[in-house]
Amino acid sequence: LALTFLVPGVVAKPIKVGFAQTGAESAWRTANTQSMKSEAEKRGIELKFADGQGKQENQIRAIRSFIAQRVDAIVLAPIVETGWDPVLREAKRAGIPVVLTDRTIQTADESLYACFIGSDFYEEGRMAADWLAKKTGGKGSIVELQGTPGSAPANERRRAFADALTKHPGLKIIDSQSGDFRRSGGKEVMEAFLKKHGRAITVVYAHNDDMALGAVQAIQEAGRKPGTDIIIVSIDAIKEAIQAVVDGKINCTVECNPLFGPKVYDTVTKL
Question: What is the pTM of this model?
């Protein structure tokens, strides 16, 4: 059944939602977009979808377009944490509630958004570090493949992992660089790490599975065995990464479920 507003004497109309997505940088993101689109169709919600293509200015432009179209609610997966206050004030003045999904923002005015629906990125990073400490006996030289600079998952997964390693002085991060959550970025950065550090690298910590899978390619092309010569721990648990765990190429992936559609639309309907 379609979700509708019921007002006495007025013909019911479908809920209209604007969704500003970050882009299509990973398999996780593709699944997240599909969840939002398929659930909207299932519920009879009119979804206005905008692909940010990895740029905050595109998302800001999309939000202003949603306001002009007088949507009933705006869903935002913010590419970075800062710089959202002006456009969210515009939405607030227009009386349009904003739901943050997947990623959080930094703002002194939390009235600019209704709520956040997403995962605990800090907990994911902590779980990855705790697993690694047990696996290695607390010893290893780690290279870190960071996500998009300034994004909530990259910030929190990095901070949590570093915090957890303070309990394990034998585990040290010897290099860290952004692969922008992309498989190609993970491969390129890992190639550079291997050239720079060679066999000193014993562990890869990737902020998402796509970068981890890129690192697997780079390690194999360098003549080493991912999962054996170099331990790989990652976050997301996409299907391909789970298969890589089964195949012994990735050692651990921490789940981050992308299927937010039902929770988001339940919340939008209540708002």
Answer: 0.86
